[in-house]
Design a protein that fits this description.
Structural class: alpha/beta
Number of strands: 5
Strand order of the largest sheet: 2-1-3-4-5
CATH class: Alpha Beta
Oligomer: single chain
Radius of gyration: 13 Å
């Protein structure tokens, strides 16, 4: 089975490694890269428009904002963007969805839901990882 090509936008190395391990172990994902700043993420996404299936974005980054990364991520229908954060309010979740997020999850309380969503993306995405 082909693995879900995943790009992580997360500035904390420990959290990034934890998310990568969870996705690779439980959602048939393969982390193909990561960025810790808005600039790094935006540059990578601009150069690799079709090279990923799942984009996981933290809102608070070492430089810039995950919101801007989400806004800048032009996607094919088969690509999904998930926002994860420890600082979600109803208003922030609504804003993420209005900017095109396919899923929005709290890192501290909705990690199982996050992994399940990623697993679902991998099982229903027929165009990924050629």
């Amino acid at each position: 089975m082909t693995r879900l090509r995943t790009f992580l936008v997360e500035d904390c190395p420990v959290t990034r490694d934890h998310i990568a391990d969870m996705l690779e172990a439980n959602a048939n994902a393969r982390v193909i890269g990561w960025a810790s700043t808005e600039t790094e993420a935006s540059n990578w996404l601009a150069k690799n428009k079709t090279d990923w299936d799942l984009l996981v974005i933290d809102l608070f980054l070492a430089e810039g904002s995950g919101m801007n990364v989400l806004k800048a991520s032009s996607r094919r229908p088969s690509q999904q963007a998930i926002v994860i954060s420890n600082y979600l309010t109803i208003a922030v979740k609504a804003r993420c969805y209005s900017m095109g997020a396919d899923g929005v999850f709290d890192k501290s309380t909705e990690i199982d839901e996050f992994v399940n969503f990623a697993r679902k993306v991998g099982s229903t995405n027929v165009e990924y990882s050629r």
